[in-house]
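Researcher: Before we compare anything, I want clean individual predictions. No alignment, no superposition, just each chain on its own. First chain goes here; please echo the sequence and then give the structure tokens.
Model: Echoing the first chain and its structure:
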Amino acid sequence: MTFSKSILAIILISSAFLFFATQKTSLQQQEKVALNHQEGTPNLLVQKASYGQQPLYGGAFASLNYTDPNIQIPILNYVRLLNYFDQKGIEYEVVPEQNNYLAVTSLEKLEDITINLVTEDNTIYTATIKPSEYSFYNERYDEYQLLIVPTMYFVDTYSLGAAVFSGYKLDYDETTKTTYIQKKDKN
């Protein structure tokens, strides 16, 4: 009887060890990554940002904005995005008087936004933003407002609303002037 209790104890200890070892591996896969900055600024270097296969912008800097949730893109790419919506049969409404408020009645046909951020070691970190993360439901009008707005100015730095990164943890280290990104664990 003591022999089987010993084997049972060994099996339980082995199972616990295996469980904790796999949990550690899962956490290691989600390590935070240091992002590359424009010299002397907190602006992040973006290789490219895309809606599906449609470019939003590239080879530019993004300033994380914690007060404005929108993703700012050049006006020409905004018009191309609307044309792409037309091609894909996505019904939308734009209200120019309200900062080009862009709304859809359903998120069903929308695609992910991918943002390729350059890391400190000059590799690419791809952040994937789901439609539910770059929109919010407006109950009053029974529609979803997309957090994508055009800019009329030709700039090399675009505002990138930190709110769309709800699936990620963003940290800024003031002493090293470094921004870190880490995918949130789904658990």
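Researcher: Okay. Second chain, same rules.
Model: Second chain and its structure:
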Amino acid sequence: MVCNLGLLVEPRTDGETLSPRLFIPGDEVKGEVVLILTEDENIETILIDLKGKCKTKIVIGGDRNKQTHRYERIFHTQQRVLFQGPFKMRADTYQYPFAFQIPETFNYTNYEFRDQNWAQTYSTSGPKPLPPTCLGPYHTDFSSEISYHLTARVPKTNLEDSYVLNFSPSRRILDPAPLPKKVDGYNCSTYHRHYRLTAGGRCRALTTREAMTEAFRHNAATSTVSFTFSATAPTAIVIGRSYTVDFILTSPDEATSNIMPSFTLKSWTLILKTRTDIRIPGKGSDHQKLLEDLINISSGTLNSSIRLNRPLRVANLFPEGKIYAPPTFECMAVKRSYDLDLKVAVECLGETSSFKVKWPDVTLYPAKVDAGVREAIQAIEIGTAQLGIRQQGGLPAYDASAGPQVEEELPSYGVAVQGSAA
């Protein structure tokens, strides 16, 4: 058989800029399957399937006692017959259009697992929301995967082509409150800098000899500044939306009459720490494992001056228009939750101090809003326009700048919740 089968999905036409392309319930996946024959061939059938699959793997024991447990379930499937033969087809190019509408739920039957309280949503049978695409983490002995594939094929041949869909449930809340939370640096790290003044009244670091002397006997010409770090960040995050983070260096020494040295915020790294709980049915009890991984949200160099006891607001630390992780979710064999970690480097008198801040249990909301919510907003906008009312509501606007921006004046960030150190 001399031929080729290709699957083409129509490009988006709605102007959406999310990357990679994201499908939500109600979306229509359209395209065509192209069959190219270079000689006459007998073709029996051409099919295309849309399947959602959940897979987990857990290896228990080692050496001779190693046991590999696997779970696989196709929880959603749709199929279209594009061509029904058998028929001898002439050498030519054939195109078959297709369309699938992605549903919101699938029918779950609760019979495989022992632990009925592992995932509250799945403690009973019935309609359940389709889980988001979640590829990984992958390790040698443990792995998980939730995936959606379009597959075009000619049965009884090796002709096949597939397309991987990036799917997510839709967001039912238009504009979730970001729930900003202030957290101190990990272990409440406090740094100290000894310094002296030059003849011109500028702060300078101690020389090596002065530092050695100061270790044994304090010199009246030596001043000390102590400082700690804290930050305020959102704990409810819409994927693909930009947020600001507030940095603050706190020092009790600023209240003294001493001249303070300058501080520079050198660099940052913002990280999502993923916690993926997986399970596999067992005879006596389910096999369970917690997988942890890190997703780098953003990192770079700022070299921005930061004043003691005054918040410094930095925008665009969260990449806008980018799908960097699945939303928080649970399904029959996989649960995903997140922590947020921030690492910063602060320079003072030529010496750099590193701080780390942790926000446990942050919530990631889906990137795209539910169609019903979107239609309601559009109806309000059309109605106000027809009445001649200037529209003040609608979807909130966000800064589309690519890089981080330090804001001089801090607008209201909402009421921050004081949190304990991570």
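Researcher: What stands out in the second chain?
Model: The helical segments are 208-216, 371-386. Additionally, Confidence is low (pLDDT under 50) at residues 390-401, 408-422.
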